[in-house]
User: Which sequence fits this backbone?
């Protein structure tokens, strides 16, 4: 498992990346992070909602309540044009950061 500090610094990037293709609800976002990371990154689902709310306040994502027959009402979050720009910038920043850490730490194939 990755440390809390490592997760804290990457949460927004992970959420934005998962919303790139289509809107998703909070539970799905949390489970996809866990699944796609092979269980290395996990979040308490309720802990994601303050981050989603902050991102929505910043205009990076847009949340809409959706009600379907025989299911609970869920809030689906989608990426806004501003969020796409932020995602592109964060991807560049993370790639540069990983490359620099790899150089300093002597990591290969990172």
Assistant:
């Amino acid at each position: 498992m990755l440390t809390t500090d490592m997760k804290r610094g990457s949460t927004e990037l992970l959420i934005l990346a998962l919303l790139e293709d289509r809107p998703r609800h909070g539970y799905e976002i949390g489970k996809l992070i866990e699944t796609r990371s092979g269980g290395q990154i996990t979040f308490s689902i309720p802990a994601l909602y303050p981050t989603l709310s902050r991102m929505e306040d910043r205009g990076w994502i847009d949340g809409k309540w959706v009600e379907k027959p025989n299911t609970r009402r869920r809030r689906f979050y989608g990426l806004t044009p501003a969020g796409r720009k932020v995602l592109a910038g964060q991807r560049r920043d993370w790639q540069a950061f990983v490359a620099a850490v790899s150089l300093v730490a002597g990591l290969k194939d990172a």
